[in-house]
Protein 1
Amino acid sequence: MPSLQELINVHEQEIKAFSPADNTDLENFRIRFLGTKGIVKSLSGEMKTVPPDQRKEAGQMLNAFKQLAEEKYASFKEMQEGVANNGPAIDYTLPGIPLPIGTRHPLRIVENQIVSIFEKIGFSVATGPEIEDDWHNFSSLNMPADHPARDMQDTFYVSSNPDWVLRTHTSSVQARILETQSLPVRVICPGRVYRNETISARAHCFFHQCEGLYVDKDVSFADLKQTLYYFVTEMFGADTKVRFRPSYFPFTEPSAEMDISCTVCGGKGCNLCKHSGWVEILGCGMVHPNMLRNFGIDPEVYTGFAFGMGVERITQIKFQVNDLRLYSQNDVRFLRQFQSL
Ligand code: PHE
């Protein structure tokens, strides 16, 4: 049978180690030590077993023990009430740990600019899937299976289904719009496209395009030129000159490529324009009658124009980024340079 002093010692250790997780813990502590049937009470009851010559000392020990339990209880109680009344003991006026602010990706900045320039003249945004079927990426765009123009774009095929490709251009969205929307349509289609190219400074296996499509009665090549001229002046400034060169795309006839006067050297000749004074920025043309027919549209009644540009190309011209790989390397030293835009 342990003596009163030994019992007190054991319980003292318990009190010293006590640290409540919540109110319930603290209340259990009160009941265990200070309650009417608690340890302090029962140890007081043991006093009568202490030999008379040791009573004084034992009484002092018991008092100190009781005080320890009461103080421990009171200090935690005070802390918990403080939490309840004033919230946690944290000074919210102290400055926080700064979180670095992210930046918009340069391609997104430029894509947003392109889209908003066209939105101002009534184009709305349309999107489509990145995994496309042959019909929307090729066949409906006047490129049947044996058409040599398919070789213009090195295609990734989905191995489990030979009818599926990673779309090679956002012209697939043109097809989806003509299939589902009633005329007239005036859309701008931004999105990622894929081509089986070896990755280098000048080519990548994925990049971004913005395609435009306008189909209505009496849409002419003059409308196309004027629309693109408006785009160039908004994007690159009123001094920028444009020129059109005849070209070929299966889904447009006639087709053209558009150059702008070099915005870096002003036409004098530099690396960007390869000393020609001009940089190519997009392909365009009048929607091919076959393509309109593919979607049940009568080309005698409706005409349209389409154009498609590479977002990386426009970004390269605007910010003089000379290596395409920078866009997908996620190097913050590169990305931070666009923080203010
Ligand atoms: N789809 C063409 C390309 O990827 C661009 C284009 C779009 C050309 C619309 C004409 C009309 O190269």
Protein 2
Amino acid sequence: MARKKLIAGNWKMNCLLAEGTDLAKGIAAEVKKMGKPSCEFLVCPPFTLLTTVKKALRGAKVALGAQDAHFNVKGAHTGDVSPVMLKDAGCQYVILGHSERRADHGESNELINKKAVAAYEAGLKAVICIGETLEQRDSGKTIEVCSNQILGSVPDNADASNTVIAYEPVWAIGTGKTPTAQDVEEVHAAVRKVLAKKLGKGNANKMRILYGGSVKPGNAKEFLSLPDVDGALIGGASLKVEDFVAIAKNAGCC
Ligand code: PGA
């Protein structure tokens, strides 16, 4: 089952206008140079830069995504952005349930599930994030935690065309620490099994499961050549054109 790798940049709360424009233009130029890369590319800037980045990416095969969405289409929700608005701004994807949102905003599996359903209805693909804390890993609960997050946050009508899973151990995000390749493959394989139970084997085999957490040019090949790793969700290293592109190249995208 060939799953096209997805190389996704999560810019988080970074970049002002000039910097974000340069970054997007730089990525667009490098992806164009690749000709026909075997991977798909995605960048997820902050809301303020979505329309600007959309323009900067023109002509390059790089999709645009946001980092969160509300579950309502519109209305009295000060400070929130709806999935329909994201679609209108040119997004194809939205990251949901990132551990920073689960931690900073108390987002539950149920809420993330609702957001994903709303994202599908707006025509967006959801990148649903899961991952254990260090304490959970140390107490041997990684697979249990990730399985419960999948069962709770992934909607029943999720399929490979509307959903990507991102496994991001919380303790590996922005720390420079990573699990071993064996640990990553173990979790990804377990996640695929849970997806098969929930959505059927066909869907599970087609669905992309990204690894995220301190992905760098130097470890990209190791992680992205694992059988159940179908791409990367990249934070810090996605803010530098050279690093983002080097990760893609080391992952065998071109
Ligand atoms: P990192 O972040 O690559 O900086 O560890 C990954 C993420 O949070 O998506």
Protein 3
Amino acid sequence: MSTTASVETRPEVRQTQCFIGGKWIPAASGKMFPTMHPATEEVVAQVAEGDADDVDLAVEVAREALEHGPWATMDARERGELLFRLADLIEQENDELAALETLDNGKPIRDARTGDIPLVVDCLRYYAGFADKIHGQTIPVRGNYFTYTRREPVGVVGQIIPWNFPALMVAWKWGPALAAGCTVVMKPAEQTPLSCLRMARLAQKAGFPDGVINVVPGYGPTAGAAIVRHPGIDKIAFTGEMSTAQLIMREAATTLKRLTFELGGKSPNVVFADADLEQAAHGAHLGLYFNQGQCCCAGSRLFVQEEVHDELIERLAAMNHTRKVGNPFDIETEQGPQIDQAQMDKILHYIDLGLQEGASCVTGGGRVGEQGYFVEPTLFSGVTDEMTIAKEEIFGPVLSVLKFKDEREIVERANATHFGLAAAVWTRDIGKAHRIAAKVRAGTVWVNCYDIFDAAAPFGGFKMSGMGRELGEAGLQAYTETKTVTVALA
Ligand code: ADP
């Protein structure tokens, strides 16, 4: 682990309370919970631990803002202007917000600074531009009637987000919700509440009316479950684990809430022998190790055609040997710690299972150091479809390489999972690329690239990787209800 002169200074933590109805208030219970820096395991702040009472209050003010506040009658274009202003304020604070993200999540500062926060700004601007372009249709019906549709905000939305891209998940959720005119009760992940709270402060500065955005930090089974249960919430947007989504779906049945889920994956990344191998190796490496492997779309099943298998393994191993793992505040660092002890232990357990089930560990395989939750970039070869590491989501820097012979077998093997979030194919044969793209059951398919995201490009899962889509125009759908109005003309 290296420390050099390029180490950045740490940010100040300024917001730690619940943000409800435009006020910064302690949790009703008075409880606080610690949030820590995963590289050092030190507690960096105590944050208000919201629960059902705080959610009740947040829903009450969000409902009031939706139905009676200035937001209720605000011009759509003005909603867009508020979103643009929020994006500008975030852009001005890019480095500080990035540092807060690194402090709370442990991701390398250079990723947070050049990736996460600029993507936040881009997403908010994309949806700001949509605010005044959400419109219905006029519909020719039989008889002497005039029929048109209105697209109205779905209402008060509960948004529950994970810890892997804390600020970006706020933007993915607030952007479409606010553009559509909804009001929001958000619960950030208990591991990473800080950037969300900072963004709420910036939203307040931007001029969003009180009650439009509310943030209740806290734990899933308490604050999160209270949001899911609350009859005053119309829709839940959730990103996290499949098992949590199953709980939410069961609970939400009582009030028939609208649901969108973005869940996990075991994404196939398929490299054919005719691919540009250097590009493919870099793409496969990025596709798995980026963000410490903590990406729902991680290309964790790397299928390599047998002719180029050994060469690709060599290239990947070489990249792992030189990868800079360490202090995420060092701008040279490429890989920071995992989010917490539980995730690190889970990853190390999967590595053990890989070894026990007969895969060969080419690089890594263990923890780095004894302080902080660092895991070596780990590469397994000789992985087969039945092994646990080829089936279950690891959410860490562990790449499994599987061999394949030809195109006929690969689609079936790629699809042999209950997940369907993303996939990629590397080939110079354009016909083959499109054939695979059409047959693979995944919400996103990358051809000769990986992890290319854009606010305009819909993202979400087939099968058990999710429901509905985020980003793009598709991402607005879940935040509006269509109302049909029919007028007798006679
Ligand atoms: P992860 O493994 O990424 O932490 P989770 O699904 O556990 O995935 O967490 C994602 C988000 O869901 C977090 O904000 C967490 O607090 C919240 N959460 C966890 N359990 C529940 C629950 N029972 N009801 C509502 N939200 C929950």
Protein 4
Amino acid sequence: MLSERLLIIGSGPAGLTAALYAARADLEPVVISGNQLGGQVSITYEVENYPGFPQGTTGPELVELMQKQAERFGARVVIDEVTEVDFRHGSPFAIKTYGEMYEAQAVILCTGASPRRLGVPGEDLLIGKGVSFCATCDGFFFRGKDVVVVGGGDSALEEGLFLTRFADRVRVIHRRDSLRAGETLKRRAGTNSKMNFVWDTVVEEILGNGRVQGVVVRNVKTNATERWPTDGVFIYIGHYPNTDLFRGQLEMDDRGYLIPGPHQMTSVEGVFAAGEVQDPVYRQVATSVGQGAAAGMRAERWLAERS
Ligand code: NAP
């Protein structure tokens, strides 16, 4: 059993920023990476709205810099996943990972969120065989091909635009007739000749035998269904928070987002939360970084008051 003052669960912008602040306060925090080192932004190609990068940057570059900065002050990033937590008995908390048992005086939860699935036939079977939630990871395999993107938010447009680098045609299928995405992305997508929009339409089935070959779509206004051949289905219909591990131990809303009180403290003293795991609204790198900084500072103060 390893004994730590502060354990941070999750290595996205919130977790790495909490680690930076805690490390600068000499807490030698341990960051458990989770299954995606760097979190969601590490699989985002372009980041244009994080301050300090006037020309934009890439997700992997940004989180690599954040990790290096936290490590420079003594944070330790461990590639591992948490499998069990016990917050029921107060501090010190017991945390089990695949590789280790920890006891931590304080914990910051930065487990983020994961992409939602459509829940239609064919989707689960064809993940990795043409169904994807990550254009940055898989776009390259669709050079010269036809793909569809499902969703009408910023992610659908941003990732759809990225796919136009490779695919010959990118059809964005949206369930309404107006986009949720912001104006800049809307403008760019609207003027990209490889991108088309299909309005008022939902995907009802993904077709393919070992590889995506098409989709069944339904127009929600006319109820007409059609089968369209396509090579890839990229799904961007929002996220759900990664809080399964904390169910029954911490207060959460009906969608499963943690509800922190003042200063990022959850319903258990000494357990803090930052980033998308507790933010269904803003969900930006910039806001996650701010929440991570607050959680790191507050955890340090909480530990100091107790000792
Ligand atoms: P989002 O804004 O929640 O958009 C999800 C989209 O999926 C919506 O258009 C929604 O339709 C649609 N949808 C939801 N459930 C569906 C279903 N079952 N079937 C079909 N369509 C469905 O999610 P997001 O695009 O991932 O963005 C999340 C947050 O990250 C947002 O705050 C966004 O601004 C931010 N973000 C920002 C950037 C950027 O600034 N560059 C890039 C990516 C993400 P409705 O519109 O009808 O609800």
